[in-house]
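Recap quiz, item 2
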Amino acid sequence: NAGVTQTPKFQVLKTGQSMTLQCAQDMNHNSMYWYRQDPGMGLRLIYYSASEGTTDKGEVPNGYNVSRLNKREFSLRLESAAPSQTSVYFCAGGARDRHSPLHFGNGTRLTVT
Amino acid sequence: SQQGEEDPQALSIQEGENATMNCSYKTSINNLQWYRQNSGRGLVHLILIRSNEREKHSGRLRVTLDTSKKSSSLLITASRAADTASYFCATDAGGNNRLAFGKGNQVVVIP
């Protein structure tokens, strides 16, 4: 049972390059989320998808786009990477029920030079 | 968005001792959750306490919630070296189960 799987695990980009972070879950979650984690900042919500076919901005959406490809997959795209986007990115899945926990992937560590 | 804020930020204890962490938040919540993160890994859910609950237990974990003070505490009893991790509180105040996380507590348990 894989849970929430993120690829790649590590990535180095040059400023201006683009890339897509992939996330897939096999837990039948309706909702999926993208967070970034920076030292001393905790986790901040970038985008989320409450259900297949819908996406909404979170706290820090600038510079990112997302696609909820189907119920299982939720990708995060950086169109033109900037050094400020150097971070660890976490994908999570959860039920729509407000009293359900989130299940996280193991993260993608991204460095933008 | 609201943010949980844990206190203290870093804690170093001997194996067998208890570890207590606190979290405060700013607005009304539906629930408060605690997560653990081991180095280089994703967050793992530990326990959820609803806004109408005051105390909850799960194994060696005890969580309290004081909505009048907008604060919560996580107690880990009889700590083990394997409890070495960062611990985050998160609050759910909006719809769609969006969580706002605190900055985290780093706990080191010395064998």
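The two ends of chain B are 39 Å apart (CA to CA).
Chain B has a mean pLDDT of 90.
End of item.
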